[in-house]
Structures are given as C-alpha cells and as structure tokens.
Design a protein that fits this description.
It is a single chain. The chain is an alpha/beta fold. It folds into two domains: 178 residues, Glycogen Phosphorylase B (Rossmann fold); 165 residues, Glycogen Phosphorylase B (Rossmann fold, 3-Layer(aba) Sandwich), CATH 3.40.50.2000. The chain is 39% helix and 19% strand. It is built from 15 helices and 13 strands. The strands form two sheets. Strands 1, 2, 3, 4, 5, 6 and 7 form a seven-stranded mixed sheet that branches. Strands 10-9-8-11-12-13 form a six-stranded parallel sheet. Helix 11 links the parallel strand 9 and strand 10. The radius of gyration is 22 Å and the shape is elongated. The mean pLDDT is 91.
C-alpha cells in the first residue's frame, strides 16, 4: 500500500478523483469547498467528479463549487439506471476515491466508491464512538473525534483529505471561501437603486424561512426585532426567502406594514445575484438554512440563529460572522433582546 500511495499521491500523475457524498444540499456543499480546493492544490492536473444523491430540487453545483469538473447523480429508480450509473462511473478510471462521511456514515457511498475501481480509497474508520462498518472497503482511514472536539464541518472535510497530504492554510481558507462564489455586483447595485429611494441608509437583511421548521425563529420575533431596530437606526430592509416561504413572509409583511420601515421582498435571486446583494449588506440576520451559508462567503456581518443544530459545526466562519445558539436547543427560546443587542454591538463597531 505504501508504494501505491506514494506513486499516486506524491506525483502529478493523478488524473481523476472521485468524491462520493450522499449529503449535497447547498450548505453541505459550501462547507466542503476547502476540501475540494486542497485536492486541486495537491493534484492540479486531476479532474474531480462528485457522486451525489438525487434531490427534490436542482442544486447549482457548479455555481457554488468552482473546483468541480463533473457531477454524477445516483438514482435508485431501476436496476437499469444503476447499471448505467456504474458503467459511466468506471469509465473514468479513478486513481483516488473519497468518502468524507462528515455528516453520516453511508454504506451505499462506500460500496459506490469501492465499485468505482479507485485504487486509493480514503475515508473514516471511526467517528467518536461510532464505528464505520464499511471501513474494510477503504485502504486509507483514521479515527476522528469531531463531536468531542466540536470540529466545524469545513475542518471535518479537510481532515479526511489531510490523510493523503492535501492541505490548505487558514489564510488560504478565508480567500477560498470568499472567492468560491461569483458575486454579481452590477446586479446588486442596480437592485438596491431600483428598490430603495435612499441608498445612504444602512442595508439590512433578514431570512425568516428555513428548510426545516425546527430551524425557524418565530416570525413575530423577526418582526419585533426589525421594529425595535428601526427605533434606533434608519435602514433599508430586504427580506430574502425561498419558494416555500410565502406564508411566513405574508405574516411578516402584515406585521411590518404597521411600521414605517422601508422594505422589499425577493424570492427569485440566483446564487450569484444573491451573493452580490448579501456582499453589500451591513447586517444579515438569518435562520440556519442555505442562504446563511451563502452569506458566510460574503463581506456581510452575519448573525445566524441556531436551535437544535450545532452552531460550532455549521455556523459561518470569519471575524464578522456571529451566531446565537439556543441554550435549550429550541430556536423559539432565542430572545429578541439577544438578537437586538448583538446587532447594535456589531453596527456600533462599524461606527454607523
């Protein structure tokens, strides 16, 4: 194994790398970007293919991950689809196959990685007290104590490829994350000018929706927060939302309409346009959801609200990225005062 490892991973001969990752929604993809970057840094001539699970909605893989060369969706709808999938997979002749397993250990992912024909197969042997029952299909593997040591998802992904000497520095990670998504600045400037009469006010955004109900801070709390903030400072407000947030936004609008706050609602941003908008915000208060992760890659001051999900694992990273973790694991127990006080503290540091 040592000769094989050296011949493949210590030279420029690696042409194809496979990553098998069952969890591939926007947040999952964004936190794994440093891992992809580390692989490209070590193996600049290699093409990286991701095997992803089928989702209920399209994921803009190439918009959010500039290091990806190909994506193959694994569909279990029929035996014929599975056969076609493996035929396509094996054509690439992968030298390295990686199963990150940073969210959950998947037996199917390990089988796919093994049957791909990859010679070097990298993954985890054990996570804290959970053993990988499929580790026999790996030939480079280690034990990790990610939960015990409260390790962020981006570091978990990097830990896996550090086993084959793929590394990036902290300074590199900051640049990698900011540069990973193209920001449509011209669109953002025009949007702000078109939707707000005064562009000299602070620009603040909120994200009241989320993919999971348990991640949603109550709409009445968002309304109370912006109303209270409006008594202290003048600002333009943008409410960002997803396709399924109509009911939440309608309730929020009904509450905000009773105030004099200037606001607009937008649901149709693509990733690049949204990133451009968020990059110009003075403050963005968001639930734990996909747009939180996009905001984490911008210059915006971000406050992320966490209930049952662990902030140490998923919160955006950076000197102007903040989070509030519910002490009871219930997002409803985060008080408006906590969010307001942190917001004022952040904005005061900007001398605004």
């Amino acid at each position: 194994m040592s000769k094989l490892y050296l011949s493949l991973t210590e030279t420029q001969s690696v042409k194809n790398i496979l990553i098998v990752r069952k969890h591939n929604q926007i947040g999952d993809m964004l936190v794994s970007i440093p891992m992809y970057s580390a692989l490209k840094k070590k193996f600049p001539n290699a093409k990286i293919t991701l095997v992803a699970a089928e989702t209920n909605y399209p994921i803009p893989f190439f918009e959010i991950n500039p290091y990806l060369d190909d994506v193959i969706i694994f569909k279990k709808s029929s035996l014929m689809n599975i056969i076609k999938f493996f035929v396509k997979l094996r054509k690439k002749k992968y030298e390295i196959g990686i199963v990150p397993s940073t969210i959950k250990i998947s037996r199917t992912s390990h089988i796919i990685n093994f049957l791909s024909g990859a010679k070097v197969r990298v993954g985890v042997r054990k996570i804290d007290n959970v053993c990988n029952k499929s580790d026999i299909l790996l030939n480079i593997k280690s034990d990790f104590e990610w939960n015990k040591n409260k390790v962020h998802q981006s570091e978990r992904n990097l830990d896996v490829v550090r086993q084959i000497n793929c590394k990036v520095s902290e300074a590199e990670i900051v640049k990698i994350m900011y540069d990973s998504i193209r920001k449509d600045n011209s669109f953002a400037e025009k949007f702000i000018a078109d939707h707000f009469e005064s562009c000299n006010k602070l620009f603040i955004g909120i994200q009241p929706g989320a993919g999971k109900k348990e991640n949603m801070w109550p709409t009445k709390c968002f309304a109370e927060f912006v109303e209270r903030l409006s008594r202290k400072i003048n600002f333009n407000l943008l409410i960002t939302c997803g396709r399924l947030d109509n009911e939440i936004v309608a309730e929020l609008q009904e509450r905000i309409n009773k105030t004099k706050i200037t606001y607009t609602v937008e649901t149709n941003f693509g990733v690049n346009k949204l990133a451009g908008i968020l990059d110009k915000m003075d403050l963005y208060v968001t639930n734990d959801t996909g747009t939180m992760h996009i905001a984490g890659l911008t210059k915006a001051n971000v406050i992320a609200l966490f209930g049952p999900t662990r902030a140490y694992e998923w919160a955006p990273r950076g000197k102007n990225k903040f989070y509030i973790q519910s002490g009871t694991d219930d997002v409803n127990d985060i008080s408006v005062k906590e969010v307001y006080d942190l917001s004022i503290s952040i904005l005061n540091k900007k001398n605004l």
